[in-house]
Design goal:
163 residues; Globin-like; single chain; 69% helix; globular
Length: 163
């Protein structure tokens, strides 16, 4: 192959990757916005996760804009998101069951709001994100999770330490 067959710059490579994902999945910014808004509608109505989010998010429109940028970066490699998700989640009082609930709601949203190939792409990314966040939050708390072990919520950790 000639060098001209390969995009030369990082921006060109990213654009080519984005185009390939869009072609194979149909994902575009409008679909990402529908998914993000639909998912967070479910989160806000959820008895387990809703209160955790309500205690921390006072202005939903800016949060949803950040989440659209985040999912654009994750799903399409657009580099629109420039935040630090681990720092934003490190202090949350969550455990493995919370991540399971988050994934359930996300998967339901993706399957209800996206074509199958797009839903699969989003769900694959969501599972990686949930696993990474759970491990990262555990590490932040000084807990090294062994394979197959789940993070306990903060209250459970404090109860174990004081008992």
């Amino acid at each position: 192959m000639k060098n001209s067959d390969h995009p030369a710059t990082a921006a060109e490579r990213r654009a080519a990757a984005t185009a390939a994902i869009q072609t194979s999945t149909g994902i575009d910014e409008a679909m990402i916005a529908r998914l993000v808004h639909g998912f967070y509608d479910r989160i806000r109505g959820d008895t387990v996760l809703g209160p955790i989010f309500a205690a921390r998010i006072k202005e939903w429109p800016p949060h949803l804009d950040r989440m659209c940028a985040f999912w654009s970066s994750v799903a399409l490699h657009t580099s629109r998101y420039h935040g630090r998700p681990m720092q934003a989640h490190a202090h949350l009082p969550v455990g493995g069951a919370h991540f399971d609930r988050w994934l359930t709601l996300f998967e339901e949203s993706a399957r209800d709001l996206c074509p199958p190939s797009a839903a699969s792409h989003f769900v694959e990314k969501a599972r990686m994100i949930a696993g990474s966040l759970e491990l990262g939050i555990g590490s932040f708390r000084g807990v090294m999770l062994a394979p197959g072990k789940r993070l306990e919520p903060i209250g459970a950790i404090q109860a174990d330490l004081s008992g």
